[in-house]
């Protein structure tokens, strides 16, 4: 069999969640940093493809390449550990506490931010000939996207905040399915296919992903976008993180856990 059954996938999810919680600080930060670097470069590829073709779906088709690479390398995204880490607590794994879960989330998120900011600076440098000229078409696309998804939401006040929050929920519903997809197959080709599909959906529908946004908006500001750090945090990053937490944990991982880890084997083996 080249694919695992849902019951086997959920047991793998619990095991992976426990392993991530018990991973050392250095490795959590390092894996998070590398994940931020790779995902950020995938965003550049996707926006470049959209700018060159004028077709958003082309960008969505190529963006999952970064997610697949970082997942196959065993690197971590905050969005993934949002869903996986608590499962080990729900399953009463020894040594797993909410404090250690929060620690895992914090260090992975810190690593993601560090990697994203590093690539944002390096990409801004390449787009502007070491900050000596105005950015070209791809850079202008980043400026426009970053402005629309910060100041654009801010203009609608709480309605804008709620919209970002809900987009964060829908985003991580799909992204955690991508994380789980990596556990569902035994071959590299099967893993890539299972990851590609939900990641394509989230990017094509322009949902809000915390780690993508750790790169997109700092890059926009470095290139000259006219919004503040406070606007980015209050009307994008904070509601996105909260929405990603709800979407990944409540909408994706908990239902799988309840139906395949807490249901009688005779009922959950189909």
TrEMBL record:
GO CC terms in record: plasma membrane
Organism: Aliivibrio sifiae
Membrane topology according to the record: Multi-pass membrane protein
Membrane-spanning parts: 28-51, 57-84, 105-127, 160-180, 192-217, 237-258
High-level lineage: Bacteria, Pseudomonadati, Pseudomonadota, Gammaproteobacteria, Vibrionales
Main subcellular location of this protein, as a coarse class: membrane
ATP-binding is among the record's keywords: no
Location of this chain's protein in the cell: Membrane
Name by which UniProt lists this protein: Formate transporter
GO molecular function per UniProt: formate transmembrane transporter activity
Similarity comment text for this entry: Belongs to the FNT transporter (TC 1.A.16) family.
A Pfam family recorded for this sequence: Form_Nir_trans
Key words, A-Z: Membrane, Transmembrane, Transmembrane helix
Gene3D superfamilies listed in its UniProt record: Glycerol uptake facilitator protein
